Amino acid sequence: TAKTSNVSLSIANFKYNQDDLSAELFGGTRKYINRDVKIYIQPDDDDTLSNCLLVYTGRLTDVSHKADKVNINIVAKRVWDNITVPTDKTTDNGIYVPISYGNYTENPASTFASPQFESALTSKAYRPVPFNKMDKKKALYVDGISTTSSGELAVYEKGVDVFVPLTNAEANNGSSVDGTFHDKTDLLQVRAFQQRADSIELVGTTGSTITVANEDRAINTNNSDYASYSVSYSSETSGTRTVDLGFGVASGKSDRNYITLKDANGDIVLLNENLDSTDTGVDIDDDEDILVNHVIKVYDEEMAVTALPSSNTLTVRRGFGSKKESHDNGEIVYYDQTLNAVAIKYEIIFTANIGNNVVQIETKTDGDNLLITKTSNVSATTLIRNITNATDSIRLKVRFSASEDELPPQLIAEVRIYDVYLITQRVSETPEDILYVANDGLTDNGWNSNSAITEIHEAHRDLMHRHTSYTNSNTPTNWDSGLNIDSVRNWQIRYWMLEPMPLIEVLEKLQFEGGFIARFNGQNEFIYIFIPDSPSADFTLTKDDITDIDLSVTPFSNIISKMEIEYEKHPAENRYISSVTATNSSTRTDYNIASAENIKKVELDANVSQPSSAPANASDKNDDFYRYYDHILGTPKIIVDTMVINPAYMGIDVGDILAFDTMNIDPFGESWSGKFFMVVSTQRSVGTLKITAREI
Asked: Which end of the chain is more exposed for a tag (fewer CB within 10 A), N or C?
């Protein structure tokens, strides 16, 4: 961070406009309190202001005086003082409009009709958006940024650590509501996805031997390979292999959530026939919103839809919820928005099959089970069956049984399990407090033709222009010339703010994570400062320009030889998605650092560029966060404290790069040649300038 001190001046209470100076400063017609104060260096007693050097700008805060002296205090007033961000709110409820920067990436659409596996929902490049209110039967979430795409809302499924797009969400399409842009969902927030098991555990085996191969392939992400279970029996015998498949738990409502089925006109859908308790064909008014594996309800009987043979005709499994009843024509049809189903892709191969032999595959969850019994070959097929409630495990059994008929039995058979997975649809009956969106962050507010802001230094500048009096008509020093931060740096950002915080805290966070200092210099110019890959001197000082030089090296306590860096902040949890351990092995060896010592933990909330794990050449120091800070902190550096006495160099300021030549002291026996130093602090008094410069 950059800090500028306050200034106290003691001045003779001389005559000014026929009165004391104190009378002019307070009590006269002109008001000086809280006005700008500029301090100049006056070389050679020059009385022309344009020939003087501006070195300080502040605000006058208070004045006191005695008969012969006037004391004035000046504070370093900065444009970010007393500003918090964000500031904009929604009109009705006063919800803060988030500020966000960076590129975000949405996951592919996932519906019950076409669900994605959680392994395909890989993007965590989302940002949170808060609920505002209901409007025209839609739940509005405060985005703050206009979009026609990538604004579909998602819910975070903690059990499987994925962001699942809602099936009924829509982007704001550039339409402002309640004073800002909102993304929308239906009141009932529905999401669906498929989930493979994350563990497989042997429960046990019984009976005769079953040969098992590649059992883990039943739950890997490749549904073309398989787990193999095979036997070769030549006598009456049987064998069973039982495993438990473990799943993460999906959030949201998991018990039945029936709503009235309606057609496109909003009319309630009814039965179109009388049903007895055994009918499996059901005629209804309209089946547009019904899919295979949906569950419908007539009165209090639940029925699982197994096929859609023709328009407005359903094939159902009766007794799904344990009841089988008769129903009258005209009864109301409901359908369930909370669905759970087990899917199994399998194949059965009989190589020899003599006798009364069977092969069985059974899946069992809490209160539900599916039993497949086969006596002949089954080509690879996927069977999906509804279950009555959510589950975090499936018990899978593969059973072979050889039994004598007229001849002694012979059974040589193989069961191949390609895939076992859950299909889940969940619903939130009331709007979630926070949802997530992959709509990209703010563009610049006019200073770069409203271009996307994807890099940390860009966001820093945009905050300055957008929220302070430093407007976008200004171009900072070292932006696109000089050190040229806009060309040298490409460190990526994803960052959001939902609640107010002091602007200076945000700016300093971005400065640290972006590896730069931003300040107003002595001439009141806003400047970006960082160490270039190939530095060159702004000033070269000799022994005649300075006095009282003191050389030291970085204290060992300031050396950082190893960093544990966490980055890519998780949008929904207080943790980070990625991490890197970066080590300067040479420093740890050279300075006898023990394995558990000198380790710095760093958490990056905004910087999403992957840090390197090892140092680089000095010419590559700006590649990433670790390499930059390792160049500064990874090895001891020479520090120069000295007094500048040559008036020609009184304008030296923080951030200037120095070289030294024809000195009467060597830096710890080394040569000054090829060494560069950056000024890190200045202290001015009449006729002198005290500086501290650090080797870069």
From this structure: N
Q: In the predicted model, what is the mean pLDDT of residues 234-251? A: 88
Residues 623-656: b if buried by 16+ CB within 10 A, e if exposed = bbbbbbbbbbbbbbbbbbebbbeeeebbbbbbbb
| C-alpha–C-alpha distance, residues 403 and 105, integer Å | 58
The 3-state secondary structure of 90-114 reads CCCCCCECCEEEECCCCCCCCCCCC
400 in Cβ contact with 413 (< 8 Å) = yes
Q: Which helix (H) or strand (E) holds 314?
A: strand 313-317
Write the CB contacts of 412 (distance below 8 Å, at least 6 apart in sequence).
230, 231, 232, 233, 350, 351, 352, 353
Mutual angle of helices 503-514 and 456-467, in 10-degree steps: 160
Read off the tokens for 411: 């059974």
> 89 forms bridges with which residues in the sheet?
96
Cα–Cα dist 414/227, whole Å: 10
Distance, in Å, from the CA atom of 591 to the CA atom of 271, rounded to the nearest integer, reads: 83
CB count in 10 Å sphere of residue 407? 8
For 581, the enclosing helix (H) or strand (E) is strand 576-583
Task: At 213, list the tokens.
Answer: 């191969």
Q: Could you tell me which of 349, 381, 529, 505 has the C-alpha nearest to residue 457?
A: 529
What's residue 253's pLDDT? 59
Residue 141 CA to residue 651 CA, distance in Å, equals: 52
End-to-end Cα, the chain, rounded Å: 17
Tokens describing residue 579: 């991490």
Cβ pair 362, 369 in contact under 8 A: yes
Q: What is the mean pLDDT of residues 7-22?
A: 92
Q: Which helix (H) or strand (E) holds 633?
A: helix 625-633
Q: How far apart are CA 229 and CA 225, in angstroms?
A: 13
Say if CB 355 and CB 402 are below 8 A apart: yes
Q: What b-and-e string marks burial along 144-180, b requiring 16 or more CB atoms within 10 Å of the CB? A: bbbbeeebbbbbbbebbebbbbbbbbebbeeeebbbb
pLDDT tens string 632-684: 999 999 999 999 999 899 999 999 999 999 999 999 999 999 999 999 999 98
